[in-house]
Design a protein that fits this description.
11 helices; Rossmann fold; alpha/beta
């Protein structure tokens, strides 16, 4: 990817910022354009912290170019202008309105970012080939494990039928996959969708369970454990996700012509998950231990008094479990960070960011 121009949308986001850091560290010289609207869905100071990390990394790699644009991918004119000016070879679309529960209370945000925004990216990729230009070599985009809905068969495979979403968020992510397939077929745009499974780590999203539990415990509030603790999640450490994304970026699906003389869609979908679901109660137990170890919570903290088992909420699913055999087969890669080690890194970051 050296000497390539790479566009990363959602660049101040959790996965996006870590991807940019990884590219600056391992793919220099490289030109990276980051777009992010810096919305206040969660604490903007965390997004600013991530951008500061990127600026610092970019300054230690002067052979590379880092350009940040504060804007939304739902602004079609802006997206077109960015493609025209910078002509990216690789596009990684991570900008999206995330979160299952928020999609119930604020559906507009999902339509604007996940559908209109993604459509704008697809259109810009399509027109990057105009007038015989080389155009975009590979579009990589974030999908989600939520597309599996309440699929009974586990582990979840990309071969499974995923036509029964249980949240609007899941429906928009499945729509992204369908839209990308149509554009791959019509305009021969190589595209790969990545279904991420419960990503966690330092400077993550405060709406994710491990982060919001920490905030609540520290404030002396009660944490609610859904489905009476009978939930399993395939927690995937952010560095593993980013390593997977980087490998995929370098290998676009091959362009082929079918018997009908038309393109066989250069299109692929992969799961990126830990392939090892953890019980929510065990997860909370490890998190507690690591928060005490890092000095975020006192040694004598009474967890039982701050823990409440409650029923499932709409849009939630009881288990997420990734079949990652295709990722292993095609890229020789499997996420490997043990949960305790990943939560330790989060707890240490949390202490440093909020308490030191």
């Amino acid at each position: 990817m050296q000497d390539k121009t790479i566009l990363v949308t959602g660049a101040a986001g959790f996965i996006g910022s870590n991807l940019v850091l990884k590219l600056l560290r391992t793919a220099s010289p490289v030109r990276i354009i980051g777009i992010d609207n810096m919305n206040d869905y969660y604490d903007v100071s965390i997004k600013e912290y991530r951008l500061e990390q990127i600026r610092s990394m970019a300054s230690s790699h002067p052979e590379s170019v880092w350009t940040f644009i504060k804007s939304s991918i739902s602004d079609r004119e802006l997206v077109g202008k960015v493609f025209e000016e910078h002509r990216p070879s690789i596009v990684v679309n991570l900008a999206a309105q995330a979160g299952v529960r928020y999609s119930i209370t604020n559906p507009d945000a999902y339509i604007e970012s996940n559908l209109i925004g993604f459509y704008n990216i697809l259109e810009a990729c399509r027109h990057s080939y105009d007038n015989g230009e080389t155009g975009v070599e590979h579009l990589v985009y974030a999908s989600s494990s939520s597309v599996y809905g309440s699929n009974k068969k586990i582990p979840y495979s990309t071969e499974d039928k995923v036509d029964n979403p249980v949240s609007l968020y899941a429906a928009t992510k499945k729509s992204n996959e369908l839209m990308a397939h149509a554009y791959a077929k019509l305009y021969n745009i190589p595209s790969t969708g990545l279904r991420f499974f419960t990503v966690y780590g330092p400077a993550g999203r405060p709406d994710m369970a491990y982060f919001s539990f920490t905030n609540k415990l520290l404030a002396g509030e009660t944490i609610q454990i859904f489905n009476y603790g009978n939930c399993k999640r395939d927690f995937t450490y952010v560095d593993d996700i980013v390593e997977g994304v980087k490998r995929v970026m370098q290998s676009p699906p091959e362009k082929e012509t079918g018997e009908d003389g038309l393109p066989v869609p250069p299109y692929a979908i992969y799961n990126i998950g830990n392939n090892q679901p953890e019980n929510l109660l065990d997860f909370v137990d490890i998190l507690q231990q690591e928060l005490i170890r890092a000095g975020v919570l006192p040694k004598d903290y009474d967890f039982e008094a701050h823990k409440k088992l409650v029923p499932m909420r709409p849009g939630d699913v009881p288990v997420t479990y990734a079949d990652t055999s295709a990722l292993e087969r095609d890229f020789g890669f499997k996420p490997s960070m043990p949960l305790r080690e990943g939560l330790r890194k989060f707890a240490e970051w949390y202490r440093e960011f909020y308490m030191d």
